# Entry
Amino acid sequence: MTRIFGHYVPLEMLGLWLLEFLPCLLAIYLMLAAPPSSGVFDLIAFEQAIALTLAVSLTWIAIGLYRPELCLQTRRLFISTAIGATLALPALLVVAMLAGIDTGSLFGASPLRPVQFILTWVVLLFATRVAFRVALRFNLFARRVLIVGDAPAAARTREAIDHLRSGFFSVCGVVRPSDTAALVPAALAKNRVWAVVVTEEARGDLPQDPLMQGKHAGIHVYSDVEFREQQLRRIDLDHLAADWMLFAPGLSRGPLEASIRRGCDLLISLCVLVLTSPLMVFAALAIRFDSPGPVLYRQERVGQNGRVFTLLKFRSMRTDAESRGPAWASQRDPRVTRVGNFIRRTRIDELPQLINVLRGEMSFVGPRPERPHFVEQLREVIPFYHDRGSVKPGITGWAQVNYPYGASIEDTRQKLSYDLYYVKRRSLFLDFLILIATVRVILFQEGSR
# Structure
């Protein structure tokens, strides 16, 4: 993992992105630049190539091609690479049009050139990921981790490594704090240890001198809670200190970042409203003709610091859906109308919430606002649940792009671990990643219900 603006990014995925970005940049530059025989570096063509390559690579990021788990799923990998290669072409053309770049040198007069582009990208993306998967299976990327602590406590960290980062890390052993011979720099170097992970229970008995010497020699030392947070990119609720928010960098952002975030909320919301206005009109007409009742659904939600506001959505259920009281949506919920089923899966029902963003009641990115009825229940059974309200709720968020729809106490607890990670690590960079990942969630209809 490497930290970028406080957020943990898998180093291997960053390397894979560079491995695909650089040859794509070179290929586009050579097609835009003057003939190589001239021996002149074309700065304008290089700048244009960077813009076009960024458009292509951001498309690949948006549909999730740089998620480690994707490399282990052959069918999903093939579908994603085909979609990524296909969508990269219109993304390239849109950026070229906006930047005034002549694409004639890219596509020439041949009508088959766009097809050649797509097929080349499909082969490139699929081949690099198959090679990446082979490397994972042979542990070519595996970094050796030594766990310090008793076996029951060490099992939590071992599970995090084996379950989510298989192929990236390998546990080379579990030792007790009293085993100082295994912790001296020479022993760690001999066993090619990349990091030492210390369980919470072992920290009081830990000999600090040998590990400090190991740190100076380039060996990483983590607490087990910090290590799992890095790898899982969510908070360990079972080991979260009561005063954790005092030390959360995401809550220490200054007024400048707050102003930038608000300006981005206004700009993005206005742009999306304008672009989707024909779609919203069509959705409103479809709802009106499909079932009796209002087009918009108004519902009280809990916002920042417990303030209640009225959330707007396109109505996707029958008007008597909650005649027996509030309830979570379920799979194939019979209360959902025919049109409602479609607008839920495509997230069209969320579009009126752009008005809530313009009002300042919501942000574009943040924890999903919950209903007062459920908030009171969840605060009683889930510790730290009220802490998610320390920031504005959002249309999309870290939990939404990493965990499916939650319809139980346990689901809500899992989503809270992602929400609190966002609260702790919140930054404009993380907001940007969430916005990009939302494209994948909508495209593949992940977590809709």
User: Anything to note?
Assistant: Residues 366 and 394 are 4 Å apart (CA to CA). The mean pLDDT is 85.
